[in-house]
């Protein structure tokens, strides 16, 4: 718009300058026709220049739209990356929590199994102690019998009955 006004001003200035120059020297009808033809050619040239500028402005606007679309795609990609980071962080947290819960469960199972195993061992140990005590009582009984027999008493059923055998 501004360029069009400026071109008209320049075109008018050139025409006035050329007319004033020719007026000083005098000019003919052919000179006037040449001036008009030059003025028309200049205006056509200015119109073509305006069309080219408008076409270039259209191309610039299209490039700006493409740049805006590219920026939007970049922003969308950044958002997807942020979403992926959030999702992967959440997944890592869930997996590490699951693994930790698994370890705690296994550790608890080991402790529980150890306690039940220890209880079984304690029960078996108390049975062995009871058996050993009964064996020890029998051995001490046999020792007393041997002491009696070695002191010179004969081994008779009454003697055995006296010791509970």
Key traits:
mainly alpha, 165 residues
Q: Which helices and strands appear, and what pairs or packs with what?
A:
Layout (H helix, E strand, L loop, with lengths): L1 H24 L3 H122 L6 H6 L3
Précis, in short:
The protein has 165 residues and is mainly α. The chain has 3 helices and no strands. It has one domain.
Task: Give your account of this protein's structure.
The chain has helices at 2-25, 29-150, 157-162. With 165 residues, it is mainly alpha-helical. α1 (2-25) packs antiparallel against α2 (29-150). It is rod-shaped, with a radius of gyration of 60 Å. The N and C termini lie far apart (137 Å).
Could you report the average pLDDT, rounded to the nearest whole number? 83
The H/E string reads HHH
Overall number of domains: 1
| Gyration radius over CA | 60 Å
* Uncertain regions spanning at least 5 consecutive residues: none
Per DSSP E runs of 2 or more residues, the count of β-strands stands at 0
What global shape is seen?
rod-shaped
- What distance lies between the first and last C-alpha atoms, to the nearest angstrom? 137 Å
Q: Main β-sheet: number of strands, strand sense, barrel status?
A: none
Helix content: over 70%
Total of DSSP H or I helical runs spanning 4+ residues: 3
Q: Report the structural category.
A: mainly alpha
């Amino acid at each position: 718009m501004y360029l069009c006004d400026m071109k008209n001003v320049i075109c008018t200035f050139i025409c006035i300058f050329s007319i004033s120059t020719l007026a000083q020297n005098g000019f003919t009808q052919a000179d006037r026709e040449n001036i008009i033809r030059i003025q028309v050619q200049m205006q056509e040239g200015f119109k073509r220049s305006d069309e080219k500028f408008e076409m270039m402005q259209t191309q610039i606007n299209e490039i700006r739209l493409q740049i805006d679309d590219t920026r939007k795609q970049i922003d969308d990609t950044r958002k997807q990356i942020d979403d992926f980071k959030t999702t992967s962080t959440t997944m890592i947290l869930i997996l590490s929590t699951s693994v930790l819960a698994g370890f705690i469960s296994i550790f608890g199972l080991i402790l529980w199994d150890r306690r039940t195993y220890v209880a079984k061992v304690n029960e078996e140990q108390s049975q062995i102690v009871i058996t050993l005590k009964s064996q020890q009582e029998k051995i001490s009984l046999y020792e007393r019998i041997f002491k009696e027999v070695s002191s010179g008493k004969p081994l008779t059923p009454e003697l055995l009955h006296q010791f509970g055998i």
